[in-house]
């Protein structure tokens, strides 16, 4: 059914509206409904035992990472080349949050038992 809608409605609509934005979005929508494509899910990079708990960096776009705080429901989206750079920049930001708010935002240093 979606293939018929795509071929009979979406293509003529694009031409009649001079390839307007809404007609292109309708074309893409019907195309994805008719022929679903597998999407790659971004792979999260975990950083364990940081002063702020276990951090998780998730790629959002090329060069853009979202780093989730380990102990509170907080994340920062920033520009970085790698997950390691993103984690380092996020830890700087988390240190400013710890200095200003303290509490659960405060850094916790874990020492191995002797």
UniProtKB/TrEMBL annotation:
Domain of life, per lineage: Bacteria
Name used for this protein in its record: Uncharacterized protein
Organism in which the protein naturally occurs: Delftia acidovorans
